[in-house]
Specification:
binds iron/sulfur cluster
C-alpha cells in the first residue's frame, strides 16, 4: 500500500487571527519577511507610536494612528547610496581608478497595521520616484519588495481629512492585504496575488460566519464615513493667483518656527539631501531627509536664497502639495489627509485652514477685479 500523500493545506484568502495569537503569527512571518509594526513608546516627554521591526517583545499598537508614518521603510531617514574607493592605477601611477560598491539592500518586507492614508502616501510618492523624469532604483527596489497589510481605519480624529483628498478610512489603494480589527481579533483578506504567501504563512483558519459578518459591517461603515470637509477644488488656481500676495502668506505662516516637524511627519514629503563622507581614499555617498521649511534648504553657494523667509517656505510647502504637484502629475494632490502636520505643529498651523484662506482671498480678488 502506498502511503497516503500528505494533504496540501489550501491557501485561504481570508483568515482570522485571534488577538492572543497575533504575536505568534507575526513571529512566524518574521522568519520570511522583515515585519514592521506600530509600537507605543513612552518617555518622560509623553508617548509616541512608531513603526519598528517586529521582535517577540513588541506589543503592536493599533488603536491610534502612528506619530510618524512608515515612510522610512521605503525612504529611510538616512541611507548609504554607494561606497567608493580611489586606488592607484598599477599601470600608470599618475592615474587613479575609482571602485564603486553598490549598497542596494531591499529585503522582503511586510508593513503590518499601516493606515490607508499611510499607504496613499507611497502611492503619491510613486509619481516622483517611479513615474517621474528619473527612476530612483533605491526606492523602486524597496517598494517592489514591500507588502502592505493595511488596517481598516476606525480611529479618525479631528485632524484627519483623508476623504477630502481622494482617500478614506476604508481605501485600500496600494495595499496587498486588508486587516479588519474586530473585538476578538483580526480578519485578514488578500487583495492580490502577492498576498497569498503572507496569508498562507499565517497558518490560521478562515473566519467564522459571525467574524466575517462583523468585519463586513466595519468595512461598510468605514466605506461610508466621510473624514474631513476640505474642498480642494480650485486650489491650483488660488495658489497661482495669490503667489505674489505676501499678505495672505503672512496671515497663514507668520507664527511658523521653521522647525520642519510638519515635513518630517508627512508621508508625502520626500525632500532629501546628498552628502559624501570621506576618510582617506574611501568614502560613502549618503542620502538623508531634508526639509523645505529650513532656511538653508534653498540657500545657494553664492549666498543668495530664493526663499529667504518662512513665508516663502510655507508658500512652497502648501503650493507644492496643492498646486505644483497636481499641475505636474495629472491633478494628483500631494497630501493624503493624515493630519500629522496639524497635530505636530507647535504653533498650531493647520494646512486645511491655510488652503481655505488662500482660496477665499483668491475668490474675493476674482469677484472684485
Ligand atoms: S510644524 Fe508648524 S512651526 Fe514647524 S515648520 Fe511646520 S508650519 Fe512651521
Ligand atoms: S501635508 Fe499634513 S495632512 Fe497632508 S499628508 Fe502631509 S502631514 Fe498629512
Amino acid at each position: 500500500m502506498t502511503p497516503a500523500k500528505k494533504a496540501k493545506k489550501k491557501i485561504e484568502e481570508k483568515i482570522f487571527i485571534p488577538q492572543e495569537k497575533l504575536n505568534e503569527v507575526l513571529e512566524r512571518l518574521s522568519k520570511h519577511f522583515r515585519v514592521w509594526v506600530p509600537v507605543l513608546s513612552s518617555s518622560s516627554n509623553g508617548w509616541t507610536v512608531e513603526f519598528r521591526p517586529f521582535t517577540i517583545e513588541s506589543e503592536p499598537f493599533f488603536t491610534r494612528q502612528s506619530t510618524m508614518p512608515p515612510k522610512s521603510v521605503i525612504l529611510p531617514q538616512g541611507e548609504t547610496l554607494f561606497q567608493y574607493e580611489y586606488v592607484k592605477n598599477s599601470d600608470d601611477p599618475s592615474k587613479q581608478d575609482l571602485i564603486l560598491k553598490e549598497t542596494i539592500n531591499a529585503e522582503k518586507t511586510l508593513v503590518f497595521g499601516a493606515r490607508p492614508c499611510d499607504v496613499r502616501g507611497f502611492v503619491i510618492c510613486d509619481w516622483v520616484f517611479l513615474r517621474g523624469l528619473y527612476l530612483d532604483v533605491y526606492y523602486k527596489s524597496r517598494r517592489e519588495n514591500t507588502l502592505f497589510a493595511t488596517l481598516v481605519c476606525q480611529d479618525a480624529d479631528d485632524a484627519c481629512f483623508c476623504s477630502s483628498v481622494g482617500g478614506g478610512p476604508g481605501d485600500m489603494e496600494g495595499s496587498d492585504i486588508r486587516i479588519t480589527s474586530t473585538s476578538e481579533g483580526f480578519v485578514l483578506e488578500g487583495l492580490n496575488d502577492r498576498a497569498k504567501e503572507v496569508i498562507s504563512l499565517c497558518e490560521c483558519d478562515p473566519p467564522s460566519e459571525e467574524q466575517s459578518r462583523d468585519a463586513q459591517r466595519i468595512q461598510e461603515e468605514a466605506k461610508n464615513r466621510i473624514i474631513g470637509s476640505l474642498d480642494v477644488s480650485g486650489s491650483v488656481e488660488a495658489v497661482k493667483g495669490q503667489f505674489q500676495n505676501m499678505g495672505v502668506w503672512r496671515d497663514i505662516a507668520e507664527s511658523c518656527l521653521s522647525c520642519g516637524v510638519c515635513t518630517y511627519v508627512c508621508p508625502t514629503c520626500y525632500c532629501f539631501t546628498i552628502t559624501d563622507e570621506i576618510q582617506g581614499l574611501k568614502g560613502e555617498r549618503l542620502r538623508s531627509w531634508d526639509s523645505c521649511m529650513f532656511h538653508q534648504y534653498t540657500q545657494e553657494a553664492s549666498g543668495h536664497n530664493p526663499r529667504p523667509t518662512k513665508l516663502e517656505r510655507y508658500r512652497n510647502r502648501l503650493g507644492h502639495k496643492f498646486c505644483y504637484f497636481p499641475l505636474r502629475y495629472g491633478g494628483v494632490i500631494a497630501c493624503c489627509g493624515c493630519g500629522r502636520c496639524i497635530r505636530s505643529c507647535p504653533v498650531s498651523i493647520d494646512i486645511r485652514s491655510a488652503v481655505e484662506r488662500v482660496k477665499e482671498v483668491h475668490s474675493n480678488a476674482c469677484v472684485c477685479s
